[in-house]
Structure formats: C-alpha cells, structure tokens
C-alpha cells in the first residue's frame, strides 16, 4: 500500500485522495502538519510542503499535480473509459486548466485563507504563525467565494462534468477545494443549483467516502457535510 502524507483541510491532499480512490486504490494516510517542519518529513521533501506520496520503492513524489501525473502514467493509462485524463490534447489542456483553477486560484483566493484563519491558527504556536483569526482575511476570502461558485455553477450547467463529457481530474480538483468550504459551512448551495447537483453526484462516489469522515480537532463540520441529500 502506498502512503500519503497529507492534511485533511488541504485541497491538494484531498485531490490526490479522490484520484486514487477513483482507481480503487487505498492509501495509508499520515496526517502531517507542515508548519511543524518535522526533520523526518523534511528528509522526504526539503520544501516542507504537502502532499507527499511515498510510492513504490519508498520513492517520495511531491506535489498534487506531480502525483496525479504519476498516477495517470502508472494506473490511468490502462483504465480506458475510467481514465481521469483525456486522450485528446485539447481536452487534456482543459482538464489541466481547471485543475490549476481550483488548486491554485480558488485555493489562493478563498480556501487556504479560511482554513488558516478558522482551523489551523488555533493549532499553531505563536512562532509558527498561530494566534487570533485575522477577520480582514476572512472577509476578503468570503467575498471571493461567490465568484468561484458562480463559475462552478456555469460549468456544471453547461457540461456533463466540469471539463467535458467524462469525469476527470478537473472534477476531483473542484470537489477537493469546495468540499473544504462545505466542511466549514461557507457555501450557500441553494443559490447554485447546478453546482449543488454536481456536488451531490461527487459526494455519492465511492472515492469521496473517506473525505466525508474527515474531522479536524476543535472544528466540527457543517451539519449537512456528510449528508448525501443536502
């Protein structure tokens, strides 16, 4: 079994978990708090970032998109209709664009700030960046939520799946990011019917089950978080 160093409220880590789950492959999960900069972890990844996959032969593969490319080359290429990356170069480009949108732009505009201020700061020592939540950062992140939900709603309303006719890495990336906001209770799903229908399909997939059982010390999920009928 492969091992993933992760944190349950990092979108990049959830993305990798969903992707492996789509291929029916279990991961041994080790929760890592990268702000602690453990020596043992830094020996695997000197940059100190997550996710890190300990692959065959105990080779460390670092970064969500690097791991997903490795997954596609070692598993996905043999999956045919279940492959998470398209065969067509233009479709592949669209999948990669949306993966970047959700794991970089959505995370940078919204997710990482709400996670840091609401969930991680209480777990950090002062020297690690802990302390009281920054209300200005929370307000700014919440102001950006609507843009990303509107865009997701448009994608879901105009396509079978977010990047096209088939489930892909793009759906895994979007679900990874939005599921964290859902955990935090930051999404008014009733305002985004198409996005809600898409997310309901995501929550029903076997690859998503482990995410629904995630819990973070000191911060319970929204009451509907694990409910498939929300």
From TrEMBL:
Q: Which domain of life is it from?
A: Bacteria
Q: Which Gene3D superfamilies match?
A: 1.20.1050.10, Glutaredoxin
Provide the GST C-terminal domain boundaries: 88-225
GST N-terminal domain: from which residue to which, for each copy?
1-79
InterPro entries recorded for this chain? Glutathione-S-Trfase_C-like, Glutathione-S-Trfase_C_sf, Glutathione_S-Trfase, Glutathione_S-Trfase_N, GST_C, Thioredoxin-like_sf
Pfam families given in the database record: GST_C, GST_N_2
Q: How does it assemble?
A: Homodimer.
* PANTHER family xref list: GLUTATHIONE S TRANSFERASE D10, ISOFORM A-RELATED
Task: Indicate what this protein is called per its UniProt record.
Answer: Glutathione S-transferase
